[in-house]
Give the backbone structure.
Amino acid sequence: MSTQRTLSRSQRLNQITHEPHGKLDALVKAHAPFETQASYARFVVAQYQFQSELVALYNDAQLTALIADLPARCRAEAAKADLADLHTEVPPPVAGAVKNPTQAEALGWLFVSEGSKLGAAFLIKRAVGLGLSETVGARHLAEPAGGRAEGWKTFTRILDALPLTEQQEAEADKGALAAFNRFTVLLEQAYATELA
């Protein structure tokens, strides 16, 4: 199915992350985070760790110059509040967090983080089944102001319009793939360790 039309940057990033995305989805399902609140709490541990590692990117002045509402898009505090609701301690950092990525690489990481808000539309419904909501225990899955689809379209519109060199395109790809790998590591660790 080859088309002559060139893929947009966001479409290409979706394509190259298709495999790790599928593996991650399967891993999430295998851990059954919506079977019990205890299992869900482990899922939130991984979410918090991932989001807290990206706080510096969400608050980066150069990135905010490109995406004005970037700091408001960060979900680290929401995930931290969810942990408190679930009577789960804030976990310590896990070695291997992203450090000083290039701007293009950072955009790849943000692409994955922002894209996960679309999937959160399904996850929040499952969380409601555990007696949780957008105000208790599942804040980090809540619909962003202005809506999920609109927030994603705005983000990808900006991302797709940026003038990047071939080297920067490769860095964006690297960042997106690294983000999926990182969340996979954090998820496996969250389910492997005993929660305090």
